[in-house]
Design brief:
heterotetramer, A mainly alpha, B mainly alpha, C mainly alpha, D mainly alpha, A: 16 helices, D: mainly alpha, elongated
Chain lengths: 459, 141, 90, 177
Amino acid sequence: MQFKSQAVAKPYFIAAIGLFVGQILFGLIMGYQYVVGDFLFPYIPFNVARMVHTNLLIVWILFGFMGAAYYLIPEEAETELYSPKLAMIMFWIFLVAGVLTIVGYLAVPYATLAHMTGNDILATMGREFLEQPLPTKVGIVIVALAFLFNISMTVLKGRKTSISLVLLMGLWGLAIFFLFSFYNPSNLVLDKYFWWWTVHLWVEGVWELILGAMLAFVLIKITGVDREVIEKWLYIIIAMTLITGIIGTGHHYFWIGTPEYWQWFGSVFSALEPIPFFMMTVFAFNMVNRRRREHPNKAATLWALGTGVMSFLGAGVWGFMHTLAPVNFYTHGTQITAAHGHMAFYGAYVMVNLTMISYAMPLLRGRSANSGPSQVMEMWAFWLMTVSIVFITLFLTAAGILQIWLQRMGSNPMSFMEAQDQVMLFYWLREITGFVFLIGLVLYIWSFFYKNSEAQAAA
Amino acid sequence: MSETFTKAMARNIFYGGAVFFFLLFLGLTFDTVQGLPKRDHRENITDAVVRGKHIWETRDCVGCHTILGEGAYFAPELGNVYKRRGGDFIKAWIKGQPTGAPGRRQMPQFNLTDQQLDDVVEFLKWTSEINTNNWPPNIQG
Amino acid sequence: MDKPHFIRPCTYIWLALMLLTVTTYSIGEAGLGGLTVMLIVIGTAAIKVQLMANYFMGLRRTRWLWRGIVLGWLLLVTGLITIAYLSTIK
Amino acid sequence: MAIWFFIFAELLAFGIFFVAYAFARAHNVVLFNESQQHLNITSGAINTLVLITSSYFMVRAVAAIKQNLSRECARWIAAAIGFGGIFLVIKLFEFHAKFADGITLSTNTFYMFYLSLTIFHFMHVILGMVILMAVMLKARSGGYSAENHTGVETGASYWHMVDLLWIILFPLVYVIH
C-alpha cells in the first residue's frame, strides 16, 4: 500500500462482504420458498425477500467498486486521495441509507413504505432492481456525485493513466445511467424502454469498463507485464464491449411493444457481445503466462483468471444461448433467464470484486499476501463458490428447458403452476447447491483470519 | 502493412466506436419513440390505467410475477392474464388471497378497494393489448 | 525515390472495377433475373472485392494469414448468399 | 495487427447482416422483389463508382507518402474525402426520396434491411471521412514520412473496407432478385 489514503478502501471492502453474506442468506430463503411456498409467509413474502436479495447484490457490488476505486486511484495517480474524510462520511451515509432501505423493505408493507417515502410525489418505486424509495435513490445520487468528485479530483492532480481514465468513465457512466431510474412514465412500453437504459447499459455497458479497469490493474500488479501492453488490450476489449453492447440493448426490445426491427439488431449485436468476454479470458491467461514476477498472492491470480473464464461462460455463452430472437421467443421470462442472470452476475461482477479484495486486503493489513494455509483455504472458497454457481446455473437451465417444453410447447401446454410443480426437483437441487455456496463464502471470509498472524511478510 | 499498433490507436478506436454506436442507438431510439404510438395504443391509457400501474408498482407485483416476460419467475406471467382469465376472475383471485394451502406459493392479501381492483384490471387489460410481436407463445404465458 | 511499383497496376485495377460496376448496373437496369444472372452478379461482386483487397488494401504484400481471413470471409458470405438465393429457386 | 482485428469485427457484423438479408429474402421473395423495384438503382451505381474512385485516390495517397511527398499525399486524401462527400450527398437525396414516400424502418422487412444496411454503411462513410480528415491534417503538417506512415495506411485500409462493403451491398440489395 503506497499511499496512506488507500486505507479508506478497507471499510468499503468489509461492508461489501458483509452485505454479500446478507444477499446470500436471502437468496437461500427465496430458494427454499420456491420449494416450500409458504416458508416465512406472511412475514417475509417472496417479493420482499427478492427485493432484499437483488438490492443487497447491487449495493454490495457498488461498495466493492468504490473500495476498488479508493484503492487503485491513489496508486495509479501516484498521489494521496483528494479527501479521505469525505470518503469516510460518504461511506457511513451510503451504509446507513442501504441498511435503512433494507429494514424498510422488511419492517413495513411495501405500499406503506411507498406512501411514507413520498412515492406519491414522484413515483419511482415498484420496478425490478429499482425498488428503492425516493430518498434512497436521491441518497445514492448524492453519494455517487461526492465519490466521483473525490476520485476525479485525485486523478486531476495526479498521474493520468489509461486504467484510471477508463475506471472514471465507467463510474461516471454508472452515475449518469442511474438517473434514468427517476423516469417512470405511465406508458408501460416507454417505462420499460428506458428502464433498460439503467439496467442493460449498466451491466453490459459501463460496468464492463469498470470490470476491465479493475482486472487490468490487478494483472499489472500481479504479473508485472508492461503497462503499455495491458492498457492496449484494455482499450480493445472495452471498444468491443461498447461496439456490441450499446446496440445489444436491442435484445431486450423484442417483446415489449417496440418495433420489429429490434429483433434483427438486438440479435445480431448481442450475438457479438461474448467477443469482449472471450478476449478478456485470453488477455488474463496471456498476461499471467507472460508474467515477469512471481507474486506471492496466488489466490488473487486464481480469482483474476476465474473472472475471465466465468464472465465468458456466464455472460457470454449463457447469454448467447437465449439472445437470438427466435430462441428468446420461447425462453423469455423463464428460468433460463434466471440461470443466465446468476452465472453472469457472479462470473463478471462478483468475481472481479473478490479479485480486488483478495489482492488488496492483505496489503491494507500490512503484508503482501496472506500465509500459505490461508491462501489454500481461499482457493477452496473459490472452487466451492464457482462450482456451486455453475451447478445452480445448470439446474435452472434444466428447469427452464422443461418449463418451456411443458408450458409453451406441444398441443396442450400446462399452466404456469402445473409446470412449476414438474420442475420442483431442480429447485431442490438448486437450494442445496446454494448452501454449498454459503460454505464457500464463509471459507472465503475465514481465510483472511486463518493462520495469518505469523506470516507477517513486509508489505 | 505495418505490424506496430499503438495504444493511442486503440484508444481512438474505443472513443470512435463508442460515440458511433451511441449515436446510432440514439437514432434508433428516436425512430422507436416516434413509431410507438401506432403499436402501444397509448390513446387507451385512461386515468384508471394510470392508477392501476401505480397500484401494480406500490404492491411490487413485479417481485413475484413477470409482465411482458420481465420481472420475477415465482408466479405466472400477467402480461396476457386479462385474455387468459378475464377481469372478474382477476378481481376474485386478488380478493381471495392468500389461499393458505400448506406448502403452496402464497400471494399476500393487499386489501384493495373495489375501485383499486378495477384500476388494476384496467391496467392489465391495457397491457394485454400492446403489440408485442405476438409474444407470449401461447395463452399460458 | 522512383514511383512505387504498385501505382500502374492499381490504375488498371481501378478501371477494371469501374467497368465491372457498369456491367452490374446495366444488368440491374435491364431488370434481368434468374439463376444465371444472379450468379454472374455475385461473381462480379466477389471478383471486385478480391481485387480491392489484394491490390488496393495491399494484402498481396502481407502475411498469408490476413489474406486467408479476408478470402475466407468473402467466400463464406457470398456462399451463404448464393445458398439463400438457390433455396428460393426450387 | 489490431487495426485488422477491428476491420474484421466490422466485416463480421456486416457479413452477418448480408446473410441475414439473404435468408430473410428467402422467406418472402415476392415482397423483396417488388419493393426492390422502387430503389433508385442509378443512384446506387453512381455511388459505387464514386466510392471506388475515392478508394483509388487513397491508393495514390499511400503511394505519394511512400515517396515522402506529404503535400501531394494530403491532396490525394482531400480528393478522397471530397468524393466521400459526393457519396453522402447522393445518398441523402436517395434517403430523402424514400422518406418522402413515407418509407420507414417499419414499412416492411425489405425496407427495414435496405434502410438499416445503407444507414449503417452511411455512418461508416462519415466515420471514415473523420479518420481521413485527421490523417490529412497530420500529413499536411509533415507528420508522415516514407519510413513512418502507419496512420495513412490505417486510414486507407479502413476506407477501402468501407468501399469493399458497399461493393457487396450494392448488387445484393439493388440488383439481384
